[in-house]
């Protein structure tokens, strides 16, 4: 059970923000972020310690049905690229000094490397058109792995963790989860993913309609995750739940990770209070999730990559939020006159 945020300091935090040498409310969303982070940490002087990004990789059997322009092997090839430091997330993580952990939750082709933490549930999920993507045991095991990964980051001192993903086909899984959990028509949730052309988009929509019909009994967050989620998504679900339980600030990325976030919030509504949505992706389904949850993202840059890139580019703004709360002078300290 995830507890609601302790709001006993709220009035004091708001007072501290309002005493800074600026017109009331003039730092806009940075003020909301500062307050949320201070509440999560239960202090007037919040700190972002050892910021971490956990990147979950896994393959999707549904790719056999032609729902992505890219083959499954790109997942493991990108995992190698992450290890070599050549992907977008590597650039941005280096730029902002974010610790990047790479997790193999079950790529189709196994790749072991000292920098990749093994958490494999199998060689990718099963084709969800033909049956459940994963067994209940795999789901439970993935959730448990996610929990342990977060506890390990907490142990080394991390109090802010972002969650990213890599898994060819996972924009389909995200569309299915969004449609079912938000109870909106599938068509509104399906997008071009990595770049489907019109023909590929028609094929993707047709396949996903059939998948949704085949799993009409899957309704709860855990049922939908088992029916058409991915191992990387199930592991991220366990990680997000554990982070909220531990009072860690949770940084959310784009459509795919937000679909997992939606599952977490549907299971445990108070998880939302620990989350910052770092950007609004160009994927149409992401807008639906953000509106359903009633949240305003930090950035809107028409990005649609995943990997945690939306988190990494938004991170300096979180630092700014914490920075002004800690080090800006008050009217009294700076001897500046307040409004009449
Ligand atoms: C080279 C490459 C790098 C990526 N990095 C993230 N994704 C993103 O695209 C995938 C989902 O899109 P779809 O459902 O259309 O396959 C995920 O792996 C996601 O992280 C990538 C995709 C590609 C091709
Ligand atoms: O919005 C995202 O995060 C996204 C969209 C398409 C492909 N990969 C990720």
UniProtKB/TrEMBL annotation:
<comment type="similarity">
    <text>Belongs to the CobT family.</text>
</comment>
<dbReference type="InterPro" id="IPR023195">
    <property type="entry name" value="Nict_dMeBzImd_PRibTrfase_N"/>
</dbReference>
<dbReference type="InterPro" id="IPR036087">
    <property type="entry name" value="Nict_dMeBzImd_PRibTrfase_sf"/>
</dbReference>
<comment type="function">
    <text>Catalyzes the synthesis of alpha-ribazole-5'-phosphate from nicotinate mononucleotide (NAMN) and 5,6-dimethylbenzimidazole (DMB).</text>
</comment>
<dbReference type="GO" id="GO:0008939">
    <property type="term" value="F:nicotinate-nucleotide-dimethylbenzimidazole phosphoribosyltransferase activity"/>
</dbReference>
<keyword id="KW-0328">Glycosyltransferase</keyword>
<keyword id="KW-0169">Cobalamin biosynthesis</keyword>
<dbReference type="InterPro" id="IPR003200">
    <property type="entry name" value="Nict_dMeBzImd_PRibTrfase"/>
</dbReference>
<feature type="active site" description="Proton acceptor">
    <location>
        <position position="307"/>
    </location>
</feature>
<comment type="pathway">
    <text>Nucleoside biosynthesis; alpha-ribazole biosynthesis; alpha-ribazole from 5,6-dimethylbenzimidazole: step 1/2.</text>
</comment>
<keyword id="KW-0808">Transferase</keyword>
<dbReference type="Pfam" id="PF02277">
    <property type="entry name" value="DBI_PRT"/>
</dbReference>
<dbReference type="InterPro" id="IPR017846">
    <property type="entry name" value="Nict_dMeBzImd_PRibTrfase_bact"/>
</dbReference>
<dbReference type="GO" id="GO:0009236">
    <property type="term" value="P:cobalamin biosynthetic process"/>
</dbReference>
<protein>
    <recommendedName>
        <fullName>Nicotinate-nucleotide--dimethylbenzimidazole phosphoribosyltransferase</fullName>
        <ecNumber>2.4.2.21</ecNumber>
    </recommendedName>
</protein>
